[in-house]
């Protein structure tokens, strides 16, 4: 799929490359005198009209005559020949002599044209838009002109054939599923006589409306047998293209979960997606207009069929025949006929197991929403009764709970919800478990005490809700439920339950930024409750959690003592999960002390014990710190292996978006960025249902890929849209802020890059001064300041150059300070920290002017532990410094170029090629000069240079700076390019250039 410019309606047209290619190919054959026809099928709203509109614009631009007609839904017999009459109507007032003569020569056409048209001298006035009265006048038979059907058919074929001798003719006929018998006959006649005319006929119809008994069905089967006729099926978008469509349609960036919801519910249908988006909500309610369109399809069905459809809508899942027979109350024969009609009219489909379901999920929503309250409640109660009477199986309790809730049978619903919660946890579906326990909490007070399941109270439900919210990627809600649980404690609450409740709050708060003090107070409350007690599982867990908190608070000795005590208590009480948790903390303490071997042994031991004990969260936590131990030492391959294993284990356990499931996923993505193992789009999306802050954790890292790949517009939206989540996790501003600096740098907006650097440094210093990550931020900022100073020197603006150098020196001082006061997790500065410090010093060498090639080479060498992209950046800068001192830079350029090409790092690739071109260095796989233009290429070298940079997202000012021409001259070149290509906007000129092969790189890399 390729997003192309908007139509006049303002709605983005998503050009279906494959289908449009087939239509254009059919027109190309018609241009050569090979007449043909295309039958375009697809569901309502799938984009048939847009595709035909795009085809019409294309062929009109090629000089063809485009004639368009539409059928309308008239139930009493229809209007004879309506689409042909509408299509041919402009011929009656055409000013073209050939057309006018062709029409006058065929009096039989008068039957299709409005009275008086085609038999008078053509008027110069523009043909006015047709009204419904005009259509009736055009197609109403007139006895005085009733020359017979064959004469009319011959006249239509003859006039189209004669006109086609002077210019190609394309006739577009829409909505043939509503065509009357006369229209179908004329269409059959016309298509069966296509030979050597320069004529193309394209007809569209709704596939779901052409049921087995539909009169068009038989005709279609005959037409597709003709050699001149081909069929093109237009299917809904796939998930990726549907996301692009929704994002292009939106006026502003949408949250990922909203986009995913629209994509899922629309099932790739563009019209449905537009309607859902128009509600400006998270799509909980079906838009009224869309519901009316969907329900109109059911009006022609029999009462029994509508009843069966309503019954299935309540099930909200595929339904077997036996269940329908019982719930609907219809007899077997009546039910068979109703189902047959629903299937034939493409309302229902039959699945492989023999069950029935809606062809489109939104139709089910529309039908369900149209039910009367009593009808809905009775049908839910009937389903609930049937489920209760049947043997239990997977999903039994969830279904029973759903139908009992909807029929207000809360006494049945509550225990079913709690059983469904337990089943969801066993299946690794914490999100489903959370929904079940939330529903149980919502009806708890409404269920009499006698109807509540034994062993449950509100405190337990709140604890479960907090746990499931935390493990399904909603840390804010986990903390809210945990706080509610502490408020539900009473003086009579047993000590162990109270301590467990306070520990749950502490663990929940630890996942949030800015709540460490509250979390510490919570774990202290838990410890106060059990510290004087005997060893127990509860006491061991509190001690293990407390040890983790003390490590975070930089109290290693106290943390060690607490962890060792936790191990002893856990072994005495047989609490293997708590022992494993304490071992994780012992491993991290050993890492901080610089003993990586002991740390990894402790962590592997913790991983095994947690797995054996079924302590899934603790197992995943151990795997994360094991990966981090290798990451700290620059052992990327080992770190990535552990991270990938941890992500797989988290997915298997349903804990992908738990605290450490998220950390493992983030670590894996970051490692792949550094190692040059760049993934596809799916890696940059968070799971559905997770909180926006959790999603931001992944999106922040993904923004780095977008910038490095040159997808600047996407990156800019992400950097701006996720700023609100900076306070959620320190890693978010570090990744997003760094991406924002690099984005401005690659765009040539060096002053903006410096501003963003100082903004990020100021923000970090207010939150946590002296972070080691500040070295990387400073290195990026100093490079921007050096580029800004260099540009000012070229302009002869010494004041601006001095100001840029001063900014660079301030940023440099901050980076050096971070390298001194920052506290490495392993006790000493690791390979990554040392590499960024080397890059910082290399960038600083560029502030006075020419950079130090030796320092850039040293920085590149420092990144040799596995950070291939960062190493390539350093090689590029090394080449700049070498060339500035008249030294050989070929090896550095070749090394940077090879990495950039392999990764698809377009900005770096182009920067290296530009430098090589200016230095007369030939790179492997790159032509030494631009290919010679052919006679079909209208652009000059300079115009192409300008357009290439516009395609990269550069402004006119930036293009001018890169090409050393004025902004006004850039504008002049662009105006000439647009005139030559027939474009009205910059983006359209770029798209046309790619389409014609005038630009060689894929458009998606520059958009």
From TrEMBL:
<dbReference type="InterPro" id="IPR036388">
    <property type="entry name" value="WH-like_DNA-bd_sf"/>
</dbReference>
<feature type="region of interest" description="Disordered">
    <location>
        <begin position="116"/>
        <end position="141"/>
    </location>
</feature>
<dbReference type="Pfam" id="PF13191">
    <property type="entry name" value="AAA_16"/>
</dbReference>
<dbReference type="GO" id="GO:0004016">
    <property type="term" value="F:adenylate cyclase activity"/>
</dbReference>
<protein>
    <submittedName>
        <fullName>Helix-turn-helix transcriptional regulator</fullName>
    </submittedName>
</protein>
<dbReference type="GO" id="GO:0005524">
    <property type="term" value="F:ATP binding"/>
</dbReference>
<dbReference type="InterPro" id="IPR011990">
    <property type="entry name" value="TPR-like_helical_dom_sf"/>
</dbReference>
<dbReference type="InterPro" id="IPR041664">
    <property type="entry name" value="AAA_16"/>
</dbReference>
<dbReference type="InterPro" id="IPR016032">
    <property type="entry name" value="Sig_transdc_resp-reg_C-effctor"/>
</dbReference>
<dbReference type="GO" id="GO:0006355">
    <property type="term" value="P:regulation of DNA-templated transcription"/>
</dbReference>
<dbReference type="InterPro" id="IPR000792">
    <property type="entry name" value="Tscrpt_reg_LuxR_C"/>
</dbReference>
<dbReference type="InterPro" id="IPR027417">
    <property type="entry name" value="P-loop_NTPase"/>
</dbReference>
<keyword id="KW-0067">ATP-binding</keyword>
<keyword id="KW-0175">Coiled coil</keyword>
<feature type="coiled-coil region">
    <location>
        <begin position="589"/>
        <end position="616"/>
    </location>
</feature>
<keyword id="KW-0547">Nucleotide-binding</keyword>
<dbReference type="GO" id="GO:0005737">
    <property type="term" value="C:cytoplasm"/>
</dbReference>
<dbReference type="GO" id="GO:0003677">
    <property type="term" value="F:DNA binding"/>
</dbReference>
<feature type="domain" description="HTH luxR-type">
    <location>
        <begin position="932"/>
        <end position="997"/>
    </location>
</feature>
<dbReference type="Pfam" id="PF00196">
    <property type="entry name" value="GerE"/>
</dbReference>
